[in-house]
Amino acid sequence: MITAERLREIAFWSAELTEEEIERTRRGITEKAFAKGAYICHKGDKLDSWTGVISGLVRLGTVSQKGKTVTLAGMRSGGWFGEGSVLKKEPRQYDLVALRDVKLAMMGSATFFWLFENSVGFNRFLVKQFNERIGQFIALVEFDRSLDATGRVARNIAWLCNPVLVPKADSHLDITQEEIGLISGVSRQAVNGALKALEQKKFLRVGHGGITILDLEALSRYED
After folding, report:
1. For residue 148, is pLDDT > 70?
2. What b-and-e string marks burial along 122-155, b requiring 16 or more CB atoms within 10 Å of the CB?
3. Could you tell me the domains of the chain?
4. Is the pLDDT of residue 146 over 80?
5. Residue 141 banded pLDDT, cuts 50, 70, 90
6. In what order do the strands lie in the sheet with 39-41?
7. Which residues pair with 195 in a beta bridge?
8. Does an H or E element contain 68, and which?
9. C-alpha span between 212 and 134 (Å, rounded)
10. Strands 29-34 and 69-76
C-alpha cells in the first residue's frame, strides 16, 4: 500500500483518476526492489501485477529457438507495462531483467480490473498506451529486419523517451553505452560508433552522465 501523494508522484496516469479511484488504486500498489542483473520474471512465469518503473532500467526480451537474444523493449523510470498479460491472465511471453538496481510499483490484478471496469480516465489512458505499444512493436519488426546498428540505437533511444509512454521524461537520458547495447541488441563498440554518428548529425549529445536528446523526432524516424 502506498499514499495518494506517492501514487501521483510515480504514476502519471493517476491524473486521469477521481479521488475515489485514487484511494482504491493506492491501496492496491506495493513497491519492490531488484538488484542489477536480477530476473524480475522469466518467460512463462505468471506475474499477476501491472508494473511501473519507479527508478532504474528494465529490459523486456526473449531468446529465440536458435539461441538469439531478442530485445522487445527497454523500460525506464516512469514507464508502465504488462497490461496485456494482466488482461489476458496469461503467463509472460518475455523475460524481465533489471539492467541496474530497480524499484518497481506492482499493482495487483484485482485493483487493475476494478479500474478497468469502473474508471473512464484509466480506460482512456489504456487506449493510448495500447495504441502506442502497437506502433512500437510494428516498428520493432520493421527495423529488426532493415536497420543498421546506428538505426537500431537511434530508434531504441527514441522509444525510451516516447512522450506517450513516458510523458514526464526530460531530454536527458541517464544510460550507459552497455545498457544501450543490451536494449538495442548490438555490441558496445557498435553503440559507440552509432552515438558518434548521431552526435555529428546533432540528434543528441553524449556526456559523462548519459545522453541529451536534441531532436527526438529525427531519432524516432531515423532511416525512414
Report:
1. yes
2. beebbeebeeebeebeeebeebeeebebbbbbbb
3. 4-129 (2.60.120.10), 147-220 (1.10.10.10)
4. no
5. low
6. 39-41, 95-98, 57-63, 69-76
7. none
8. none
9. 26
10. unpaired
